């Protein structure tokens, strides 16, 4: 495996359309979780424009259908499909993977929830960890065979610079002893998204499956629904003061996901963290760089085991 840092000609302002230009995904099948809103829509649009079959895996099927219709009209690609998926419900994830037939070439684990007030799933798990990490872990591992069957598959783990707010706190992942903090919970879940890429690389490279993580940038979407305008202003000032950061458009926000999902520039690359279409180095400011603990192979192996044990501890009927 290459150990140098991956750079491309794309950058902060590149769009998903620019990244996908010239790439032909005919015959490839892709799934984008949360494909009915925010950067998910633009990720689907770019993959569909390259002629992939794309399934939007969504909670709100009506919103998914509207998005799919818009993208079919826009791209002329009729293979834009919609299927229900609730990542916080392991039975829903199991049903989704059970309904899939054949190889899967691209899985974009994009859906997410940010800074929600303390909420527990039916199994008592903290909602952000359950949705952002455990649901995607169950989905990707449930698709392992389908990904391996593709011969050369990509899994994209949409993380965030917010991973720098917290490592995975193995002693109390679900905030049963420590006081709940919505940002620590979000940060922990986004660190888990990077660690997943690290351990999946160790386990799945021999199966031809590449798994990378990314920070899409700051984009105004439904993700900020739990954050007040005051807090948002403070966050932007904090990032902007340090790095001249600014909001990206959803088309720019989807660019790094699309690069990791489809670009030949990433052939043979796995287990890494990207931002602004390039591999990140050590932390430089609030929004740029990857924490060492997010790439730690021991933490990655431990998280995989904890995640598998957590899911195995419940009865998950594939309805
Ligand atoms: N926007 C940013 O500035 C930013 C920055 C860093 C990282 N990110 C990451 O980028 C990804 C996409 O975010 P976005 O900005 O595009 O936000 P968004 O528009 O809110 O999209 C998130 C999607 O996730 C879906 N979702 C939430 N809970 C789900 C569940 N239990 N099961 C299935 N789907 C669920 C939402 O569905 P509903 O519509 O049904 O709620 C929504 O479609 C997230 O992983 C986020 O952490 C975004």
Q: Which class do the helix and strand fractions yield?
A: alpha/beta
Estimate what percentage of residues fall within beta strands: 5-15%
- The stretches of 5 or more residues where confidence is low (pLDDT under 50) are none
Percent helix = 40-55%
The count of β-strands is 8
Alpha-carbon distance between the two ends: 40 Å
What does the main sheet amount to?
A: 8 strands, mixed
The mean pLDDT is 95
Give helix and strand order, one letter per element, not per position.
Answer: HEHEHEHEHHEHEHHHEEH
> Strand order within the widest sheet?
3-2-1-4-5-6-7-8
Rg (C-alpha, Å): 18 Å
Bound molecules: NADP nicotinamide-adenine-dinucleotide phosphate
Notes on the structure:
- The mean pLDDT is 95.
- The chain is an alpha/beta fold.
- It starts with 15 loop residues before the first helix and ends in a 7-residue tail after the last helix.
- It is built from eleven helices and eight strands.
- Helix 5 (127-142) packs parallel to helix 7 (182-204) and helix 7 packs across helix 11 (297-312).
- It has helices at residues 16-20, 38-49, 61-75, 90-98, 127-142, 144-149, 182-204, 229-243, 250-253, 255-262, 297-312; strands at residues 29-33, 53-58, 80-84, 106-109, 153-158, 209-215, 273-275, 278-279.
- 51% of the residues are buried.
- The protein binds NADP nicotinamide-adenine-dinucleotide phosphate.
- NADP nicotinamide-adenine-dinucleotide phosphate is lined by residues 33-34, 36-40, 59-60, 85-88, 110-114, 131, 158, 160, 215-216, 218-219, 221-223.
């Amino acid at each position: 495996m290459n150990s140098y840092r991956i750079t491309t000609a794309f950058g902060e302002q590149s769009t998903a359309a620019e990244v996908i230009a010239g790439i032909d995904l005919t015959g490839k099948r892709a799934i984008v979780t949360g494909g009915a809103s925010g950067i998910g829509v633009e990720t689907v649009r770019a993959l569909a424009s390259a002629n992939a079959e794309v399934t939007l895996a969504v909670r709100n099927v009506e919103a998914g259908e509207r998005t799919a219709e818009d993208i079919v009209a826009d791209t002329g690609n009729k293979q834009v499909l919609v299927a229900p998926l609730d990542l916080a419900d392991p039975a829903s994830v199991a049903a989704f993977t059970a309904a899939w037939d054949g190889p899967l070439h691209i899985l974009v684990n994009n859906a997410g929830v940010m800074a929600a007030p303390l909420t527990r799933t039916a199994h008592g798990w903290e909602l952000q960890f359950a949705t952002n990490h455990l649901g995607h872990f169950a989905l990707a591992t449930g698709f392992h065979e389908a990904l391996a069957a593709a011969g050369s598959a990509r899994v994209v783990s949409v993380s965030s610079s917010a991973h720098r707010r917290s490592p995975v706190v193995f002693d109390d992942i679900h905030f049963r002893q420590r006081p709940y903090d919505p940002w620590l919970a979000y940060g922990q879940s986004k660190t888990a998204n990077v660690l997943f890429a690290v351990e999946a690389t160790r386990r799945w490279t021999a199966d031809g499956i590449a798994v990378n993580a990314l920070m899409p940038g700051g984009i105004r979407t439904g993700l900020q629904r739990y954050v007040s305008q005051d807090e948002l202003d403070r966050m932007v000032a904090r990032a902007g003061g340090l790095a001249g950061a600014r909001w990206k458009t959803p088309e720019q926000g989807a660019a790094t996901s699309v690069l990791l999902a489809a670009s030949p520039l990433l052939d043979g690359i796995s287990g890494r963290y990207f931002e602004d279409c390039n591999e990140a180095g050590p932390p430089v400011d609030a929004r740029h760089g990857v924490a060492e603990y997010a790439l730690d192979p021991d933490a990655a192996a431990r998280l995989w085991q904890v995640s598998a044990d957590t899911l195995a501890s419940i009865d998950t009927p594939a309805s």
